[in-house]
Design brief:
By secondary structure, this protein is mainly beta. The chain has one domain. The protein is 6% helix and 41% strand. It contains two helices and twelve strands, in the order αββββββββββββα. The strands form three sheets. Strands 3, 4, 5, 6 and 7 form a five-stranded antiparallel sheet that branches. Strands 8-9-10-11-12 form a five-stranded antiparallel sheet. A hairpin with a 2-residue loop joins strand 11 and strand 12. The structure holds zinc ion (ZN) (2 copies).
C-alpha cells in the first residue's frame, strides 16, 4: 500500500457508501500527459478530491470530460460538449493538445488511452481509459502490474 502513496496516489477511507465493501479506495492524485502536464484539476471535484480532466474531441467538436479520481468509480462528466452515444472520441491533453497515446485495445474494439502516473510517461505506470463514450473500461497499471479492483479491495 505504501508504494501507491509514492506514485502520486493516496489511499483514503472509502467515502462512497455503495462500494462500502472496500474499506479504502485508491484516489489518483497526480496524472500527466506525455509532455508532463498535469491532468488533475480542481475544476471538477469528486467527494472533495480534484478530478481527472482530459480534452475530448469528435469530428469538429471539442470539449472536456472530467473523470472521478477514485479508482473503480465510473463517474464521467462532460463539460462544454455532448457525448454522442457509442462514438469513439479523440482524447487529448487540455493544456498542450497532444493526443493521449494508445496503451492497448479495449475489449469493445476502441482504444485504451494512456494517462501517466508520473512525468516519465511510462506505460508501466499508467491508467488506460477507453475512448468510446459508453464504455467505462479502465485499466490501472502500477510498476508494470495490472491492478484489479478486487486486488485493491484486499489492500
Ligand atoms: Zn500536455
Ligand atoms: Zn471500451
Amino acid at each position: 500500500m505504501e508504494r501507491f502513496d509514492q506514485k502520486g496516489m493516496i489511499l483514503i477511507p472509502n467515502p462512497v457508501a455503495r462500494t462500502a465493501a472496500a474499506a479504502k479506495v485508491l484516489v489518483i492524485r497526480e496524472l500527466f500527459c506525455p509532455a508532463g502536464h498535469s491532468l488533475i484539476s480542481r475544476r471538477a471535484l469528486f467527494n472533495g478530491s480534484p478530478g481527472i480532466l482530459v480534452g475530448v474531441g469528435f469530428a469538429g467538436e471539442k470539449g472536456l470530460v472530467a473523470l472521478s479520481p477514485v479508482y473503480g468509480d465510473k463517474t464521467r462528466i462532460a463539460l462544454d460538449i455532448d457525448l454522442p452515444a457509442k462514438q469513439i472520441a479523440n482524447l487529448f491533453c487540455p493544456t498542450c493538445g497532444i493526443d493521449l497515446p494508445r496503451y492497448a485495445t479495449c475489449h469493445c474494439g476502441a482504444d485504451l488511452a494512456a494517462l501517466f502516473l508520473d512525468r516519465r510517461a511510462s506505460f508501466s505506470d499508467c491508467i488506460g481509459i477507453c475512448n468510446r463514450v459508453d464504455c467505462v473500461n479502465a485499466h490501472f497499471v502500477a510498476q508494470g502490474e495490472l491492478i484489479s479492483e478486487a486486488m485493491l479491495a484486499a489492500l
